[in-house]
Amino acid sequence: MTALVYDDVYLEHDTGPHPENAERLRATCAHLKKTGMWDKLAHVPARKATDEELGYVHTKQHIESIKRVAQCGGGYLDMDTVMSKGSLNAALSAAGGIMAAIDAVVAGPESDAFCMVRPPGHHATPTHAMGFCLFNNIAIGARHAQRKHGIERIFIVDWDVHHGNGTQDTFYTDPSVLLFSTHRYPFYPGTGHDTETGEGAGKGFTVNRPMSYDVTREEFIAAFESVLTGPAANFNPGLVLVSAGFDAYIHDPIGGLSLEVEDFEKLTRLVKNYARKHCRGKVVSTLEGGYNTRDLPRCIEAHLRGFAE
Ligand SMILES: [Zn+2]
């Protein structure tokens, strides 16, 4: 079985008229229930991240300013990142949700998990919220896996259409976390050139594969696979984490590359096969982008299908 972390608290992050809204999860829950997939998942409860855990990645100043804005009832943090009264609990439970999923996958019997959380996380840097993201859920998850479970090397795959700049910033000088990101380029947030490969001890442990707006789905998948069999082949991680964005989907309203629904099953299968080879199939993925509320549920269903044998 695949584990699922979901909680209604994620709906309480009220962004108003905004592409990153609660309908994304409402529609996906309804779809997974209708197709019967919901009952085939092992449901793992979310929990809230503690200040200490947020501090694995974020500065005290950042954590405290997010809390302060929440206490004031919310507001815009930048041009496109907004908080409501309920956003803090949602964000703490999003970061805590991925840690709960990692605990479940490390303990077994489930070997993979999907965290259907909001707000997303991969743009949040150690010091700032940005790009709809408050805390960097996947980065906090990676540090948790290392500290709590003693897993030395973590492989992070980010196939969101936007570059995972916050995750890259977190691990740029760290050889214990290999980050591989595919993303549209040039595009928001502007980073992710293939010359960005890490620094110091981390040199070579950041792998960016920028994609042009006109990349075909075949080219995208071939480039994706070539990193798993190339630069990532000898990394030997103890766990694979996935920043699963679904905004490289062809009909995404704010992202969009050429990917079709079934391509998310293919990408998942490639990652799962990689994990089978290196870490007993252990993969935890977490929702990042994906803004076509009509088709996102089917993209997520395809992702979950990719975990199955
Ligand atoms: Zn995105």
Spell out the helices and strands N to C: EHEHHEEHEHEHEEHEHEH
Bound molecules: zinc ion
Q: What CATH architecture would you give?
A: 3-Layer(aba) Sandwich
Strands in their spatial order, largest beta sheet:
2-1-5-10-9-6-7-8
Low-confidence stretches: none
> How much helix is in the residues?
25-40%
Q: What is the CATH third-level topology name? A: Arginase, Chain A
Please tally the β strands and state the result. Answer: 10
Q: Biggest sheet, in brief?
A: 8 strands, parallel
Structural class: alpha/beta
CATH class group: Alpha Beta
DSSP strand content:
5-15%
Radius of gyration: 17 Å
Can I get a quick summary?
The protein is an alpha/beta fold and 309 residues long. Helix content is 36%, strand content 15%.
Keywords:
309 residues; alpha/beta; Arginase, Chain A; two-stranded antiparallel sheet; 9 helices; binds zinc ion
Report on the architecture of this protein:
It is a single chain. β3 and β4 (about 80-85) form a beta hairpin. The chain is of the alpha/beta class. Helix content is about 35%, strand content about 15%. It has helices at about 25-35, 50-55, 60-70, 85-105, 135-150, 165-170, 215-230, 265-280, 295-305; strands spanning about 1-5, 40-45, 75, 80-85, 110-115, 155-160, 175-185, 205-210, 240-245, 285. The chain is built from nine helices and ten strands. The strands form two sheets. It has an eight-stranded parallel beta sheet with strand order 2-1-5-10-9-6-7-8, sandwiched between helices. The protein has a single domain, classed as Histone deacetylase domain (Arginase, Chain A). The model has no long low-confidence stretch (mean pLDDT about 100). Zinc ion binds near residues 162, 245 and 288. Zinc ion binds near residues 160, 245, 247, 255 and 289.
